[in-house]
Specification:
The protein is 47% helix and 9% strand. With 244 residues, it is an alpha/beta fold.
Length: 244
Amino acid sequence: MAIRPRERTRHVMTGLIYIHVPKCGGFSFGAALRLRFLTSQATIRLNQGDRSLTGEARILSDYAARRAEIRTHVEKGTRLIAGHVQYDPELHLGKARDYGFVTLLRDPVARLVSHYHYLQRKHPDQNRPATLDAFLETRDARRLATQYLFYFAGQSQVETHDCTPLISRAVRALSRFDLVGDLSDARACYADLRALTGGPLPFWHRNRAPGKPTVSSALRHRLEQICAPDIELYESCRTLRPAA
C-alpha cells in the first residue's frame, strides 16, 4: 500500500513535511530524510506543553505547540520538517502548499502493541497496567489505539462516540499526501521517496524493538476491536490515490 509520488505541474516543491506517527518504523525513514536534506532540516521538538496541565490536556497543549513550531519552519522555508505532529490542513492548503507531505503507516494492531511495549521500556509509569491485556481496559489505550485518527483527523476515539466522520476526514487528508508508505513494504517506500526527492536516500534500520511480542488469538481479537477505526482507515489507504 502506497500512494505513488504525484507529478507537480503547477509548483516546484519547496521541501518535505514528514508526519511521523509513533511506532510506525518512521525513525529510520526520518533519519534518511534528514541526511538527504542535511543543510536545511528541522525536527519538531517534544514536550512543549503547558507544564501546569496534566493528562490529556497536557498532551493537547503539547501538540498545539508543535503545530505552531511547524508553521514557523514553513515560514522560514526549512526544506525538511519532520516530527510527531498532527496534520494541519489549513497549513497544507495555504503556506505549505508547495511542500510535499509524506508519512508511513503500519498495521494498527501491531502499532498499538509496539507502542505499549515501548512505553513500558522507555517511559515506565506505576499507574500504567503491567500487562497489555489489562492496559486495553484503560482510556489511554483507547486513545493510543486511534493514533491515525488523532494525527490525520485531529481527534481520537476517546473524544467522540462516532468515529465515522473522523475516518472520512482522515481519508481526505491522506489523499492530499504525496506519499503514504506502508512499513510492511519498506523498500518500496524508500524507492518512492527517492523518486519524490529526486536524489539518493540511504536505506537503513534504526530504533529496532528488542523482539516481536507474542499475542494470543483472544488478545488479538480485543486489539482489533479497540483499533477498529484505525484499521478501517488503514484498509482505506490501500486503494487511496492522490487528490488532484
